[in-house]
Specification:
The complex is a heterodimer.
Chain A: H1 3-42, E1 44-47, E2 51-55, H2 59-65, H3 68-99, H4 106-114, H5 121-131, H6 138-145, H7 157-185, H8 189-197, H9 202-230, H10 234-239, H11 257-267, H12 271-298
Antiparallel strand pairs in A: 1-2
Helix pairs in contact in A: 1-12, 3-7, 3-9, 3-11, 4-7, 5-7, 7-9, 9-12, 11-12
Chain B: H1 12-17, H2 32-37, H3 45-69, H4 73-76, H5 89-97, H6 104-135, H7 141-153, H8 160-169, H9 176-180, H10 187-200, H11 203-211, H12 216-227, H13 229-245, H14 248-253, H15 261-269, H16 276-308
The chains are: A mainly alpha, B mainly alpha.
Protein name (chain B): Cellobiose transport system permease protein
InterPro entries (chain B): MetI-like, MetI-like_sf
GO cellular component, one term (chain B): plasma membrane
Chain lengths: 303, 312
């Protein structure tokens, strides 16, 4: 075999690995290693300034189980997640249906519904905290027109959840609608035609054809919304400007778990404990994703 | 959720039609979507009314941002709230750009640098790896591809603490490098490019180049990469948007003297006495670059989202 042949052979065998190596090396260092190392740190008494103070086993985990602030943050996270996600998915489904018609200026409408994603989450937080200001905000002014008394949006629990959920939905509903629209367009038209011949009405068609056909996409949309919802951080942080923004209001009424993680890590300087919160959250995300996919999977049993 | 290399959750077209890969469409060509439109019921006036309402809600908060950015501070706390723009935009913008508290111009430059570097590396490295996954045969290909898809499920936010420690060890804490290093590659990018290359690049093109004696790297650089322009543009746009808008990690890692725009906005809005007009002008300045990108490339962004279930 000539040198040239050897090189060519080496090229064929080695090039693929060379091409995928940068991705895996960089992801390994800055993605996978930190995630695994979080587990290691969580088993230690580890502070920002003093460093590793020794192995403590599961002590951080048992402390977490009895930590009211953590459970409070988890409650807030879930409440906001549910208040935001359910209407978001329903509105996105409806909007996808509306967009799935023969429209003039189709690109304009599609761009119009995803316009909010050009707005950064920080900007969303700032703009909406102005809209939800108690004394001079647009939301309370509009409510006053129909006779509702001013609501202290960022001081009471339920109103603060609703306000934050509104920010999330404003930014993401149109985006989800476009993904669902792409799935709608892939549903074969023959299915509807034969259903019509069988005498199925619009509602029946929607429930027996559209929803089952959208199922995989719904799983995706719900999963992304879940992961995003459980990591919610910026909107609630900016909803409460001031020195103690990280506590999510004076009574921690809208502190999410990611905020609590950051508070413990950087304000409390407890890296070990913060890492424990991180792993607990990771487990929660996995559990909720599983529950989600079970629920969405059941939809198929309708037909 | 089941994850298979050929039918990932992020690919609505694949899972609902049995077609494994969405056909990437060139905006210049008639698309399957357009062909199908003919058989759709045509839109009623009611449809346009609903859509107009939705678009108004989409644009409303952005309009309100312009209103408040262009008013003197005293107007912002007045009741009823101002609903039309005022004449102070220049003054407010000037005050942000020359703020003694926040290095806003530096922040704009920093955001641009961080976003641009991440965009270039994500597009280049995703094309390289995407090409290998789409067209090259090698041992363990499916497992590696599965690993790539798996990385999309890893919430980077939850690795914050070690990432922060890592930047300290590397001596990069507070520097722009620390803001950009965790985002040089994305699993989504690799997957997105792979899907495009599988359908858009014929095998014959690669075989012909090989017969001519070109090395794999040369084939990639001279034959494949130029053909990837449409997909690279979409991926680049989405990556740029995501990095420009990112808040959490830069907020934790960057020093107040050297922020990105989003971090600067948080610092502007978190003082004891908040100058709302100033904050709004800053928010507007930080949003304008992306609005411009959206106006110019909106069509590509929309098709990118519809093709890939893109997280922007």
């Amino acid at each position: 075999m000539t040198l040239r042949d050897r090189l060519a052979r080496l090229d064929i065998a080695g090039a693929p690995y060379l091409f995928i190596a940068p991705f895996f090396i960089l992801f390994g260092i800055f993605g996978l290693f930190p995630l695994g190392y979080t587990l290691w740190v969580s088993l230690h008494d580890w502070s920002l300034l003093a460093g590793d103070q020794g192995f403590v086993g599961l002590a951080n985990y048992s402390e977490l189980l009895g930590d009211d602030y953590f459970w409070n943050s988890l409650l807030n996270t879930f409440a906001i997640f549910l208040i935001a996600t359910i209407p978001q998915i329903l509105m996105a489904l409806g909007l996808a249906q509306v967009l799935n018609t023969s429209l003039r200026a189709i690109t304009f409408w599609r761009m119009g519904v995803v316009l909010p994603i050009v707005t950064s989450v920080a900007a969303v937080g700032i703009i909406f905290s102005m809209i939800f200001a108690r004394d001079f905000g647009l939301a309370n002014w509009l409510l006053s027109l129909v006779g509702v008394d001013p609501i202290a949006w960022n001081q009471e629990r339920l109103p603060s959840w609703i306000a934050i959920a509104t920010m999330v939905d404003w930014r993401w509903t149109g985006y989800n609608a476009l993904i669902l629209l792409a799935a709608l367009q892939a549903v074969p038209k023959e299915l509807y035609e034969s259903a019509r011949l069988d005498g199925a009405g619009a509602v029946r068609q929607w429930w027996s054809i559209t929803i089952p056909m959208l199922r995989p996409t719904l799983v995706f949309v719900v999963t992304v919304a879940t992961i995003g919802g459980i990591q919610l951080f910026t909107e609630p942080l900016l909803f409460n400007p001031g020195a103690n923004a990280i506590t999510g209001g004076e009574l921690r009424q809208f502190q999410t778990s990611t905020m609590y993680l950051v508070e413990e890590a950087f304000t409390g300087q407890r890296f070990g404990y913060a890492s424990t919160i991180a792993w607990a959250l990771f487990i929660v995300i996995v559990l909720v994703s599983l529950i989600n996919s079970v629920i969405v999977r059941r939809i198929r049993s309708v037909d | 959720m089941t994850i298979r290399p050929d039918a990932p959750p992020s690919d609505p077209a694949a899972t609902s039609t049995g077609r494994l890969i969405p056909i990437p469409h060139d905006p210049e060509l008639p698309t399957p979507v357009k062909r199908r439109r003919r058989s759709l019921r045509s839109a009623s006036p009611m449809t346009y009314l609903v859509l107009t309402f939705v678009v108004l809600i989409s644009a409303g908060p952005l309009y309100y941002m312009v209103v408040m950015a262009s008013r003197p501070n005293s107007d912002i706390t007045s009741v009823p709230p101002p609903l039309t723009p005022g004449g102070e935009l220049g003054t407010n913008a000037d005050r942000v750009l020359n703020s003694p508290d926040v290095a806003f111009v530096q922040a704009l430059i920093n955001s641009f640098l961080v976003s641009a570097v991440a965009t270039i590396t994500v597009v280049t490295l995703s094309s390289l790896a995407g090409f290998a996954f789409a067209k090259l045969r090698f041992k363990g290909r499916n497992i590696f591809l599965l690993a790539v898809i798996g990385t999309m499920m890893v919430p980077v936010q939850l690795a914050l603490v070690p990432l922060y420690m890592l930047m300290g060890w590397l001596g990069l804490a507070g520097s722009l490098w620390s803001a950009v290093l965790p985002f040089l590659v994305t699993g989504f990018g690799v997957f997105f490019m792979r899907q495009y290359i599988v359908t858009a690049i014929p095998d014959e093109l690669i075989e012909a180049a090989r017969v001519d004696g070109a090395s794999t790297l040369r084939i990639f650089w001279q034959v494949i990469f130029p053909a990837l322009r449409p997909a690279a543009a979409v991926l680049g746009l989405l990556t740029f948007m995501e990095r420009w808008n990112d808040f959490m990690w830069p907020y934790l890692t960057l020093s107040p003297e050297n922020p990105t725009v989003q971090v600067a906005l948080q610092r502007l809005s978190s003082g004891y006495y908040t100058d709302q007009a100033l904050v709004m002008a800053g928010t507007l300045l930080g949003t304008i670059p992306l609005v411009l990108v959206f106006v110019v490339f909106g069509r590509q962004i929309v098709s990118g989202i519809m093709e890939g279930g893109v997280k922007a």
